[in-house]
Amino acid sequence: MSEYRLQECLTPESMIVASNIRYQAYTSVGYEPVSTSGLFTDEFDGFSGNQTFLLYRHGRPVATVRSSIASLELGLKALPCSKAFDPIITHYLQHYSVLVEMNRMAVLPGCNDNRASIPMMLFSAVFPLVKQYGSVLLCCASGKQHARYYQRMGFLRQTDFADRPGAGLPLALL
Predict the structure, then answer these.
(1) 57, β-bridge pairs
(2) Which of 1, 75, 135, 155 could pair with 150 as two cysteines, CB 3.0-4.6 Å apart?
(3) Which helix H or strand E contains 18, and what residues bound it?
(4) Distance CA 110, CA 18 (A)
(5) Whole-model pTM?
């Protein structure tokens, strides 16, 4: 059996686990979600075209990520980053058949084993989407603290860092 396993959240229970990992990860770095339930969710969790995944290590959930799809052809017009980067996302939707935003990445605090590899394993969630849709444009919104990581993975920064609607810190689109 492999040490790690990535699985889509298909049950309400697995979504609760993912939402709790988000909450723990975000509060551990000083971001204070509005919720006091111990869960961090948003409206996109219930929208079509959004898939949340859990990464398990030795059967224990340790990290989560969500992929969000936008495609005019599929009738999926909004990504979580759409409000913050509206003109750019609108432009990309006119020039690419499918956009995929990787978002809500969170690693359980204290999970330091293979910390550098965990985000790469989470990003592997997008590979089936590439196979399903062919060529896709992959994007993410990031704060300064994590932007270098995405740039090392090949993401190019498309905007400057700035305060964005609905964000608790300055973000750039990569």
Answers:
(1) 4, 60
(2) 155
(3) helix 12-28
(4) 16
(5) 0.91
Q: Contact 69/90 with Cβ under 8 angstroms?
A: no
What DSSP element (H or E) covers 4? strand 4-8
Q: Which two tokens stand for residue 160?
A: 């400057």
Which helix (H) or strand (E) segment is 62 a member of? strand 60-70
DSSP assignments along 66-132, one per residue: EEEEEBTTTTB---TTTTTTHHHHHHHHHH-S-EEEEEEEEE-TT--TTTTHHHHHHHGGGHHHHHH
* Residues in Cβ contact with 127 at an 8 Å cutoff, skipping those fewer than 6 apart: none
Q: pLDDT (tens digit, 9 = 90+) per residue, 32-66?
A: 777 788 999 999 999 999 999 999 999 999 999 99
**For residue 168, which amino acid is it?**
G
